[in-house]
Amino acid sequence: MSTATIEPRTSSAPEEIFQALADSTRLRCLALIETHGELCVCELVHALELSQPKISRHLKLLRESGLVSDRRERIWVHYRLADTLPSWARTTLHEVVAAHAHDAPFADDARRLAHMPDRPDGRCSN
């Protein structure tokens, strides 16, 4: 099992972080990642009901902004919050997710992810 990681930028300006958070698709991805720790692209595609290219494009922007980092495992790419994410940004994201976990579309995304088929032990298998 080979893994490779592309390191995110080491710091982000507040403007870049808030610009990334201002997009609904990116915020929804981040909410799920913040809640679950790490998710595969296919899990995000299923949960948000969006195409893989669209999700990947948004994840690329999040990685370039220093919000997430990725880990490649064979053909799958898993995303998590970047270790270099400033604590104020991590706290802000956590508070937003906690305050809106029961609101649409976040609750709907979480429900779809929880009911995703072929997700043994919470990991993507396809």
From TrEMBL:
It comes from Salinisphaera dokdonensis CL-ES53. It comes from the Bacteria. CDD domains: HTH_ARSR. Keywords: Arsenical resistance, DNA-binding, Transcription, Transcription regulation. This is ArsR family transcriptional regulator. The keyword Transcription applies. The keyword Transcription applies. InterPro entries: ArsR-like_HTH, HTH_ArsR_DNA-bd_dom, HTH_MetalResp_TranReg, WH-like_DNA-bd_sf, WH_DNA-bd_sf. Residues 6-105 form the HTH arsR-type domain.
